[in-house]
Amino acid sequence: MRSPYATRPDYAFWRRAMSGRAPGEVDPVTSVPFVIGRDEKVATAGSCFAQHMSRTLIEAGFDYLVTEGSPGDADYGLFPARFGNIYTARQLLQLQQRAYGLFEPTDLAWRRADDRFVDPFRPRISADGFATVDDMLADRLEHFAAVRRMFEDCAVFVFTLGLTEAWTSAVDGAVFPLPPGVIGEDFDPGNYTFHNFTVAEVEADLLSFIDLLRIANPGVRVILTVSPVALVATYEDRHVLVSTTYSKSVLRVSAELVARERPQVAYFPSYEIITGPHAGGTLFAEDLREVRPQAVGHVMGIFARHFLDPEKTASTPNNLRNTKTASAAELQRIAETDSVICDERVLDPSE
Hints:
By secondary structure, the protein is of the alpha/beta class. It has one domain (44-274, 285-338). 33% of the residues lie in helices and 12% in strands. It has helices at 14-17, 50-59, 89-99, 133-153, 199-216, 240-261, 270-275, 293-307, 328-336; strands at 36-37, 42-46, 110-111, 117-118, 156-161, 165-169, 175-176, 192-196, 221-226, 265-268, 308-309. The strands form four sheets. A four-stranded parallel beta sheet has the order 2-5-9-10, sandwiched between helices. The protein has a three-stranded antiparallel beta sheet with strand order 7-6-8.
């Protein structure tokens, strides 16, 4: 009798695909459901690692969508709009809902110790903060318009999942990128609660996001990936390594399930490329958390090899709304910036 595995390709077998391979020799991408043409607008969002996607697209000469310019004191051109890091699927879904007037959180603004105000949902958008709540709200209105343009005008949306741990409002469940007490607003356990999302919750949030996105932009394609960068800190009463393993496992499973449940949703294995046993931990920096620049280059090279097609052009324009695009000078500045913006680092006072 013939084994059903007899006709499987080499990449399906560990000995043929992994054993004895150096880190740079492993490419776990076997096929992709679509490729990105040079003239197709691409938007990115997610955790700190997502910013490497931005640079890859810009450096490769692809149409990286920017709908809101930098404020001057932060390199927020790394993001299509000035939303900063989006660590959880619920945070992404709520950004979408808030931009379209489907959710209005109770928390309006947080007051800092210097009596300046910050937006609770992007508290580090400006080092100076805002003089008044009205100033912040006016900036938020412009921001929401930019977010809507991003969702409606992108041909491809890339989201990098980073965390499952989050701080939420005890009143309405609003999710914040940072807990109160870190930047603005004293922490009150009666008003804010810690939550660690499950597979079922992350999956449901991603599916809701994609379904709502495709109401505004029916043809959009989605790429999901999981950041290999470990947690800066955990609020669970356990070792940060255990919490990191839980978070990444939940995110990886959720991304897999969503990619199977919705068409034109792809999973890109950046997490596996960095953390797989073939790498032996050598792709991490000395802190065992950050990814070495050359390793980032390897991951982005694999992404470009499979997903970026400079010869392919879109059959119809994906931008019919006169979207503001970043200038050549701004794109060059973004590409040359080595560091990434990582709001999460402020959770550790020693960082």
